[in-house]
């Protein structure tokens, strides 16, 4: 998933126009005002394309005309302006069957992912036990192939995230992404594919990461994390506990910025989940259910001076109360 900054007010305006147009599709005056708004600024057109993209992916959640009219009424009651946010601009992979090189260069989502042995859907966490005794947990939106032979145990992660506790076996184990390969030394660690980059977090033991193109090697110890691509590696940082908490279906916040919590939560929801930067620095404390995001939003709304605004069923933002 890629991310691009779009002004919160522009994004919210685009979503509001979408709701208005769908609530009153034959209203010529509304159509004319929307056309003028769209032509006024290139950012308006970018935001509109983003809203349309979200609708194409998740709009089946909102096919009830009565609901659209309720949204319009709500918008008319609430005329308060909304401030800025960094929208999570989800870009879905499309394309035809391409070779390994196309996957490595990140042109499209991996075609191998479409046929991977193990796949999870959005908001799904799946535990697995492999033939060698290794225990795996696959996060939502993950695609993985397991390839064991007499010499090597290989896990090919095409997208998503896995947490692994390695089993005792004489054969070396490798986790491979387009960024490179990781070889553990009796350990517990997570690997998150982020397109051309991979994030490795080690919780026990150690892992040696090797960049695919440059051959650069870095040993990452327990309690450390590192992001790398095919040629370079970033400095080692402290590992974040949340990179393993998700395997239990929870998000543990210990004085966590609300913006960071919402970014994690967005990976478990269908549609757009944004946050007003005015409240992004609020601190959250507690244990939240990742697989029940509506419950988590309600918990946050009770605990913090925020409100959850539902412009559309698939367009939700968190703002100041």
What does this structure look like?
The protein is α+β, with helices and mostly antiparallel strands and 321 residues long. The chain has 3 domains: 8-77, no CATH class; 100-241, Sandwich (Jelly Rolls), CATH 2.60.120.1440; 244-320, Phage tail protein beta-alpha-beta fold (3-Layer(bab) Sandwich), CATH 3.55.50. 29% of the residues lie in helices and 32% in strands. It has helices at 8-23, 28-40, 42-58, 65-77, 100-104, 111-114, 242-245, 258-266, 293-303; strands spanning 118-119, 126-129, 135-138, 143-148, 153-165, 173-177, 180-184, 188-194, 197-204, 206-211, 217-221, 224-228, 237-238, 250-257, 272-275, 283-289, 306-312, 315-320. The strands form 3 sheets. Strands 1, 2, 3, 4, 5, 6, 7, 8, 9, 10, 11, 12 and 13 form a 13-stranded mixed β-sheet that branches. A 3-stranded mixed β-sheet has the order 15-18-17. A two-stranded antiparallel ribbon has the order 14-16. It is elongated. Residues 117-208 form the FecR protein domain. Residues 12-52 form the FecR N-terminal domain. GO terms for molecular function: sigma factor antagonist activity. The chain crosses the membrane at residues 84-103. This is Protein FecR.
